[in-house]
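COURSE: Structural Biology Practicum
ASSIGNMENT: Worksheet 4, Part C
STUDENT ID: 0417
INSTRUCTIONS: Below are two proteins. For each, the amino acid sequence is given first, followed by its structure token string. Answer the questions at the end about the second protein only.

PROTEIN I
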Amino acid sequence: MKPTARKRPTGLTRYNNRAPSRAMNRRQLLSATAAVAAAQIGSSSIPAAPGKPALMKLGCQSAPTSEQRLQFFARHGVQGICGYPEDSQKQGSFSVEDLSRIKERCERNKISLDCIEPGFLASSHIDKTARPAIMLGQSPERDRDIEGLQNTIRNCARVGVPSIKYNMSLLGVLRTGRTPGRGGSTYSTWNLADARASGKFTPETRAGRVTADLYWERITYFLDRVIPVANENKVRMACHPHDPGVPPMEGFQGVDAVLGTPDGLKKFVAIRESPYHGLNFCQGTVSEMLQDPGKELYDVIRYFGARKKIFNVHFRNIRGHRNAFQETYPDEGDVDFVKAMLVYKEVGYSYLIMPDHVPYHPDDKGGDQAFAFAYGYIRALMQAVDHMA
């Protein structure tokens, strides 16, 4: 009986079944790898021009922005940062000297200072904020603080710092506890039902009842005075969404957090039309706004990315959905990070991609291990999508 001839594997099957031949060059291998990765994304393929480079770069943020932290960033491939100059709480603004000092420190470590954050609009609870007049709507104090920010914008332009990220939050980052994760880690967790039942949250903050209309009035007051100065000086103003979203109208702790939905963010960027008015697009926070982030997030990225309203990205993953989620490592949440990175490439996003809110482990109290993992993961994704058609 004549033996049946074995069918010779071809194409990608051949590469999957055995090691590639020595004749296969690096370009062929990268093309094959990219094809496999693209196929794994699923039926909703992402268009991208062949050879079109991924323009974004690996970033991070750190307070304080010390020599030690900058060396840590440099060792792990971080290319640009959001920096935190000293004494912002005391001054209410940053001088040319403040900004020059931190920029020179970055340049010594071959890292670009792409962004800074003003301390008095930092992401912290209203009861802990040193200069809360802007968000409390207190005049004339808020006019003093807005003037300080206007001076910081002008000084950023003089020094060559292209962006400022800020937060217009009254509630800060709301969380209810921690959930066990892999390798003994724990994940920061929010569950609205648990928050309501726990008794841990006061009925109101010292901001009192803040309706949507009142919140929008305060936001508009701020933007009307800040964005024209940003336009004049060509400094991008990147606002972080409210983390997490809370029930519209009902709110939480008496506050209707209006920047906690995609529609709220759309309204926000439309208040003052300007190429210098946009978002610190926290992908984790936006995922927290959605009922099914694994399906819905990519179109939200497209909406703001296509309109050039994304000035900075916090690239983190969650497991769950609006009102109930945990913050995971980047490779295990509900959002497909390969697909997300391809969408940023598709819309031509060209600024920082930063890890954010990494899990906690008692052997990694400062989070350096978790951040190092995230840096490598993000950098590898950037290199991979560079080779995807």
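PROTEIN II
(use this one for the questions)
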Amino acid sequence: MTVAQSEKQLSRIVLKGFKSIAECDLKLSRLNILIGANGAGKSNFLGFFRMVQQLLDENLQVFVSRQGGPDALLYFGRKTTEQLEFQLYFGNNGYFATLEPTQDNRLMFAAESFWWNMSGKREIGKGHFETKASRGTKTRIDDYILPTMQQWRVYHFHDTSDSAYIKQAHRINDNTYLRPDARNLAAFLYLLRENYQKSYQQIVKTIRLVAPFFGDFLLRPSPQNKEFIELEWFEKGQDIPFKAHLLSDGTLRFICLATVFLQPEELQPETILVDEPELGLHPYAIKILASLIKTAAKQVIVSTQSVELLNEFHAADVIVFDRFQGKSLLRRLDEEELEEWLEDYSLGELWKKNLLGGRPSR
């Protein structure tokens, strides 16, 4: 596949009444770099994708409860926002839903439907508490859209503490996909080494660009229990294996990111979402990360606070989040409007000068 955007990738999102996002109508391209001040709404935007995955797994009410009830999800609660509405477009096809709060603190589907060719509408139902999307519409449109949405995962590799799941032993057969916190990294890398050698070697070589001391992974079933595996690695030129806790936080996070972007294309979700991937990374590692993002075959949505990462992209790739009177305002940068500025300054410099927006404001 070329770098052109696939029709299975999200082309437009209309979202109303979700957390700080009172309303947005945003077109998405193949590359989408989200910037903004702390609290501007970037995490809320990515959190919506987490909600959709839980919704499609028929865990919506569990998700709502864990978030603190409907009032924690609706823009300033139900007294201000009566419904949470979203429309997801994939080219000319789409999935629409409207959710309403109930007196027993659940979210109920007031409407749920699929659209195709922007003209045909297939109502799934209303008054239900878990999605009926997986039951099928007999139109094949759900077969086209559903698998794409079900693959969405927001990767965030912030927890690299000693107790982090990624540093613990886990089941070796937990390898269908890389989990959002990479807790099954060893099992997934084991799968790649055994079945996708080219991708595995590319991951190892890329890690060495950032961590020249890195030799290779030691991926093996645990000697104590063959059903489990733990992340181990060799230093270059050595044959004594080390555990994951002897990797620096930045190195471990970069390993996760390299695995996300260099896994075989057939295993990648159509849309890759990553929250603040620059955490703990050296500027050179950020530059390598940017090249992975830019050359990805799939759609990428990345939230960042990094000037170094922003500098690696074009203005047209950037979506700015501002917050005004409690509302998150989203807009894509216009490259033509910035053309003269970009002759003398980088995007990051313009951001720091507060010429792009996305900065703290009173």
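ANSWER KEY EXCERPT:
Q1: The chain has a mean pLDDT of 94.
Q2: Residues 108 and 200 are 44 Å apart (CA to CA).
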